[in-house]
Structures are given as C-alpha cells and as structure tokens.
Predict the structure.
Amino acid sequence: MFLSLRDAGFSNAPRATNVRWVNTADDGVLIVNLFRDDIHPRRIRGRWAVTIRPHDWHTKTAARRSKRDELVEMLTANAGNFVRVVVLERNLHNDRKHAGTRFDCDSRWRVQKVGNHFQLHRARPGESGDDTPPKTPGEYGKLKPAWREVVSKQIERSIGVKKRTLSRARYRCENPGCADYLHYESMDVHHVTSLGRRGADHTRNTVALCPACHTRVHRGKPKVRKRLEQAIKAVVRSRGKSARL
C-alpha cells in the first residue's frame, strides 16, 4: 500500500497495516483508496464516471466508520477538484484486508457531490475533465480548416507484393483467431518485420490482416500485441520453404 501511495505523490507514506482511506499528496491533491469493484465506470451524460455511496458501505467497527466519515468529509471539501485513486484488489478470504494495490496513473478523477453520494468523473492526464461549454465559438473548432503543405519521405512499397500477399491469403485475414474479416471489404498488408526496422518488402515478410487485427498489432495493449505477433509468426513458419511466395 505505501508504495502505491508514494507513486501517487505521498512521499512520506508510512509502512503501516491500518491505512487511512483518504490521504493528501505532497502537492495537496487528495488520494482516495477504492476497491476495484467499486470503480467500474459507466456513461453519465456522455462522460465516464463512477458513483460512490459511502453511506451504503458495511462498516462493522468504529474504526471503519471513522474512516468512512473522514472520506465523506474530505470528498465534500474537494467537490469540483481532481483526486487521485489507488486501486485495491479485494481479498476474497478476508474482507478486512486487501490482496494488492496500485496507483491509477492512467486517469484522474473530478469529484462531484450528488445528494448523499459522490460521482467521480474520469479524465485522462492532460485533459481538463471540465464539461462546461466553451465560452467562444472558436473553442469549438473551425468549420473551414486551413490547408498546409507537408513534405515527408516514405519507404517505397511494391504494389506487386501487396497483390501477391492478398492473393496468397485468398483475401482473408491470416490471423487464425480472427472473426472480424467478414465485416471488411478489403484486407491490409502487414510487414512482420516493419520496414522502419529494415524489414524486407517481400512476400516472405508479409501477411494479410483485416483492419481490426492490423490495428491491434500496432496499437493494441501489450498482451494483445504479443499474442497476435506470436500467431503471425506461427503462420509465417507454417509456410515452409516450399510454400508459394
């Protein structure tokens, strides 16, 4: 727990077993400890948010009731401000202990008090999280955006490699576990070793992927990318030396 609190900015977090549910970081930002199953976001007026109902929590002991009251008091005082969240994994064998913690460094949460409960609106770092309308029309954007000239260099790709790769795959996604290729009219060509890493623009180095799988292999989460890359390499190995290029 103390390591997660230090990641959240509380440098002097003590090595203690009985930790407060709410703490203050060195820069004055509130740090709230919440169990994972209490922070499943849902859409509230178009924004991701979670609802916290402290008065509905089971507080069997006076110490827990004191922690809950402190949490309510601090959240009330910080209504409209951003807080940081430390996520707790619930211990299924002992509800008085947690099974692990981590600091939610991917998001920050803006507090809103609604009656006897609170809503925490999630925003990414760098976003204001403020849902008030812009004050001037220009803040909405431009109806006629300006054009600008951009000069760049690109690696030359052979159209023949693309045609042969798609023909070899019979215009289907070569990811064995793909169920999305039926939703697309055309497939993409993916280089197993990217051209930016000096990979060859050759059919031995290409596979056909649907746009969904192509996006996953480049922009998916690490576990998704790794699993898909392993599947693609297995497809390439299965061709063998005698396989049609």
Observations:
- Strands lie at 22-24, 30-35, 42-44, 47-52, 82-90, 98-103, 108-114, 117-123, 188-191, 206-209.
- Helices lie at 2-7, 62-77, 159-168, 211-219, 222-239.
- The first strand starts at residue 22 and ends at 24.
- The longest helix spans residues 222-239.
